[in-house]
Amino acid sequence: MCKVLTVSESGYYRSLKPTSKKERQQLLLVKIKDIIGEHEDNRNYGVQRIVLALSQIDIKTSYSTVYRIMKKHGLLKKARRHPNGITREDAAAQKSENLIQRDFRASAPNQKWLSDITEILFRRQAISVRGTGLFQRRDRGPRHG
User: Fold this and answer.
1) If you average pLDDT over residues 33-61, what whole number do you get?
2) Which residue has the higher pLDDT, 28 or 113?
3) Where would you tag: which of 14, 45, 63, 89 has the fewest CB atoms within 10 A of its CB?
4) CA–CA gap between residue 32 and residue 66 (Å, rounded)
5) DSSP 92
6) Are the C-beta atoms of residues 117 and 84 closer than 8 Å to each other?
7) Quick one: average pLDDT of 12-26?
8) Domain regions of the chain by residue span
9) With contact defined as beta carbons under 8 Å apart, do 68 and 87 qualify?
10) Greatest CA separation found in the chain?
11) Helices 47-56 and 21-38 meet at what angle, rounded to 10?
12) Which ranges of 6-135 would DSSP assign to H, the alpha helix?
């Protein structure tokens, strides 16, 4: 069989031996770099997408192995987070006048409106803006208790 394959006997038996951990990691690193280099957008791939891409080419490996290799070779990407929100004050912008002056009563609809900007992290980014009218349709009378 070695003559047909044009391989020496020692080379054939060496190929049957399990590869060392270092060699397997080196081969995995080459595959990871191939995946990242396939397309320009793949540079942003994190560990989970790399594991998925490897499984699609029939390479089964764990998340932690891919993480360790990518971290060792500087291939991890950190998501830019804005923990204090994404709204930034513009120093050059003119300040709005406070028209309400903390008087939240309205005698008719559409006289006073407020808005509330709420930031919700959903699929990495989402902003919900809600407007609220201040007019109440009926007088509730004095408060009890």
Assistant:
1) 91
2) 28
3) 89
4) 8
5) T
6) no
7) 84
8) 2-72, 102-138
9) no
10) 102
11) 100
12) 9-16, 21-38, 47-56, 63-72
Strand, helix or coil for residue 42: helix
- Cα-based torsion angle of the residue sequence 7, 13, 15, 18 in order, rounded to the nearest 10 degrees: 180
Q: pLDDT tens-digit profile of 88-139?
A: 677 777 777 887 888 877 787 777 776 666 666 666 665 555 656 555 555 5
Nearest CA-CA partner of 35 in 23, 47, 20, 25: 47
Element (H, E) at 5: helix 2-5
Instruction: Write the single-letter amino acid at 58.
Output: D
Give mean pLDDT, residues 59-69. 94
Place of tokens 């559409």: 110
pTM, entire model: 0.47
Chain-centroid distance of CA 122 in Å reads 10
CA pair distance 54, 33, nearest whole angstrom? 11
Q: What gap in Å lies between CA 33 and CA 6, rounded to an integer?
A: 31
Secondary structure of residue 87 in the 3-state scheme: coil
